[in-house]
Design a protein that fits this description.
Two copies of one chain form a homodimer. Chain A has 13 helices and 17 strands. In chain A, the strands form three sheets. Chain A has an eight-stranded parallel beta sheet with strand order 9-8-7-10-12-16-14-15. In chain A, strands 2-3-4-5-6-1-17 form a seven-stranded mixed beta sheet. With 371 residues, chain A is of the alpha/beta class. Chains A and B meet through α1, α2, β2, β3 and β4 of A and α1, α2, β2, β3 and β4 of B.
Chain lengths: 371, 371
């Protein structure tokens, strides 16, 4: 049997531990894995694009465990009451090739994205960053708010979305949670939200080259957490922000980010630093209080690897029996696959006479056989 | 909810319809899809190799449906009582990106591989082929035997395996089924089994460049169904068989086959015909009764696409409620992902005080925050 974490189970697990602590612990797992970056087999994700969205597979392995995530991105889905992004993933044992865990990753992707944002910001934002602008108040926004409140100490959130109902929904959810002395300010434009912020988080969803942030909005010392631009033709930042002489761009995995990130707008050789170098100490996250730091996040397979391994452990640590599914056969004799497929009771059913194909197929076969 | 076909469900479905009819119907689905080859997005599979095996992802799409299969290959597994090959797959709706079906594919891969072999042989083998040598009597062998008996009219099977217990197991399973007037001959070597056969099927499992068939064994007019050589460094045929002037090599998808098939042993430009061309009439499967035809089968994503769509329909046609799993959340408001994650009952649990990180993490964060 393969461990199974469905929607209900992940709700149980996250509710039990609490989303803030879940993301804090997950960020520690992610940091641990990115520090051993060289051990992983890495490739840009496999994407199948259609006019309305994209379906992607994101595999990676450290030679002991293997994982992949399936994730879609369909901005128009919300109009039909469906999610823009859904995801699930599998963790496997490299030694046998057997899957260990199948898990939902719609919720988990939201959690790991925010955990990753906060992990990067802990290194990249100025110390004592307390004010964050949150542009885009959709499905990802609560997770960013909680992670930055809990892990960075953000105490003022400045909200803006073109859809004011999304902002009200975010505000309602945050008030219900009662985060650490958090002040929430509803703003009437991106410019108003960004003005004076220490950190600017963009989590918008349109699949196009948008200009959510313009060069004029950016102030020295800001940290920009650019999450929403994450596939070809989908960006949020004016390219001149990236080209500022005082800007420093950090990415997850440069070859993938050059295809999918904000830097897809720039020349191939544009200098970036990979987060793994920052975490290991080989790279610089911020050289001065006046630099503009940009985390050009697109989501990378290794982050999902960390999330699946963390979920697998968390799920097993719970005392109650972990749910499982019969995704892989368990045979007495591994060379006798067939013997396990057709059940004994079928032997009579499968007597010679019952094997005839439907008449039309039979006729085609007979003519082929010359009989 | 996502439809779910686990081991138990696929056993039910195949037992109900019977493996021979299942493979016949599946072959018709596969033929239908290969005839519209140009509509599919195709890529060689994504493989992660380790010293003991390989884990692969095989995606494809026709712009309406999307599918991928996860499959491993670990020949040493049988020594530990595990399967060499396990697999599962997903069928999705391109319009929304939502998964429609998660299905086991360990059994299904065995079924689709044999269906594909028989489909190709119906075009490639001489009419009235009645005698088949079956080299390698492991997990795939019963499926090949049944498919060729049912779809080609094979009436004599000549069996050989280095492991005589595997041959006994195959014979036992076939006798139990009572196939159409099938004569079974146990042979003491590959050469003995192959001598005088119309069709030679090789389904061995070693992950190395083996020479199961030598040039001296091959007789004019034979059809070789080469199934076991299916990844880099894993082949079954001596390359001189492929180089015979009277040989014709048919493959599923040339770019993948040049990496994984028997033709990996030959120069890049070696001429091959894709099966889709044979099925559509654009290519020739066999020009004369004396040609040696070789189906260099490695398994391609499109065949799994056909199998998943067929299973999805079959599963839904059954009157009993089809099993399903909660792999994707169903939300009242698709922008309110968070509101559905943390359950109402947790609001008290998640009061501010309960949100503190463990002391050590808190200390690290505090020092980072300069407090």
């Amino acid at each position: 049997m393969v461990d199974y974490i469905g929607v209900e189970r992940v709700q149980e697990l996250v509710t039990h531990i609490g989303p803030a602590r879940f993301m804090e612990a997950l960020a520690a797992e992610i940091e641990h894995d990115y520090r051993r970056w060289g051990e992983f087999e890495k490739s840009p994700r496999h994407a199948v694009h259609s006019p309305v969205g994209v379906i992607e597979l994101m595999p990676t392995s450290d030679g002991r465990l293997y994982s992949f995530k399936y994730v879609n991105g369909h901005p128009k889905n919300t109009a039909a009451g469906l999610l823009t992004v859904t995801a699930f993933g599998v963790l496997s044992d490299v030694e046998t090739g057997y899957p260990l865990l199948l898990s939902e990753m719609t919720f988990t992707t939201a959690l790991r994205t925010a955990a990753m944002s906060a992990l990067a910001a802990r290194r990249m934002a100025r110390p004592n960053s307390r004010v964050m602008a949150l542009i885009g108040n959709g499905a990802q926004s609560e997770f960013q708010a909680i992670a930055f409140n809990h892990m960075l100490g953000v105490r003022e959130l400045r909200l803006y979305d073109t859809d004011s109902r999304a902002t009200l929904k975010l505000e309602r959810n945050l008030l219900k949670l009662g985060l650490h002395g958090l002040r929430i300010v509803r703003c009437s434009s991106t410019a108003e939200a960004v003005r004076g912020a220490d950190i600017v988080t963009t989590v918008t969803a349109d699949k196009r080259n948008a200009v959510i942030l313009t060069p004029a909005m950016i102030e020295p010392g800001m940290h920009i957490n650019a999450v929403g631009g994450d596939c070809p033709g989908k960006t949020e930042l004016h390219p001149d922000i990236l080209r500022r002489p005082d800007a420093r761009v950090i990415v997850e995995f440069a070859p993938q980010c050059r295809i999918e990130g904000e830097i897809q707008q720039l020349e191939e050789g544009f200098p970036v630093t990979e987060l793994s170098d920052v975490l290991s100490g080989a790279g610089v996250a911020r050289a001065s209080a006046n630099e503009v730091t940009i985390f050009d996040s697109v989501g990378f397979a290794l982050t999902d690897f960390s999330a699946l391994r963390y979920l697998h452990r968390l799920n097993r640590e719970q005392r109650v029996a972990a749910p499982a599914i019969d995704l892989v056969p368990e045979l007495d004799d591994p060379k006798d696959l067939f013997g396990d497929l057709v059940r004994e009771s079928s032997v009579t059913f499968q007597a010679p006479g019952a094997w005839s194909a439907p008449a039309d197929i039979r006729r085609a076969a007979d003519s082929r056989l010359g009989s």
